[in-house]
């Protein structure tokens, strides 16, 4: 199903994506991991490209994004994104040296078809940045809004399934999340809980759009109380000075079999 603004997944990015570029800025450390995974690929297709986070600036990038609101937020320095979905890429086989997608596979209507398309159009690595649903509960949010974690766990495909569907020589690597992470996905706030009290920060994480207002109200009330009383810091305060968090963020790299 495609929504009014073209969003192809279960979330309406015409609504939740409006402040995306403010809260979801690419993090340099995560970007470096993606660039390394792309290797020497000179041409790259970025599928589910959104506002352009993590598109390497030193390659020829072709961006694909079905959401009109996300395409509109792409900065002028990036190429205009094509309106298409992962399952039906409008390119000949082997058109690119590599394919990439970040925080996108959980939105696809047909995961197998989308991954097959990435493999079809890329002669080299297929790079997928996503989250492992089995490790989402490492994040303290599981104690404050378990409904959000449960929603994410239902939506994200397991890395092993992604690796199996892409095929080839595949690695799955946990990506450390830095304390000052500039990409505001949920776990980016592991050591900065106050920032997740911002409704805009939560809106930029699609899982919150699937829970009712009573969940958000309870989350805000309890977290504010625990921060004020010191209860959060008594349990999780060490995270404030933990330089990296090993949570659910993973990088899957699939190279063709030789």
From TrEMBL:
GO terms for molecular function: S-adenosylmethionine-dependent methyltransferase activity. It comes from the Bacteria. Residues 46-122 form the Methyltransferase type domain. This is Methyltransferase type 11 domain-containing protein. The lineage of its organism: Bacteria, Bacillati, Actinomycetota, Actinomycetes, Micrococcales.
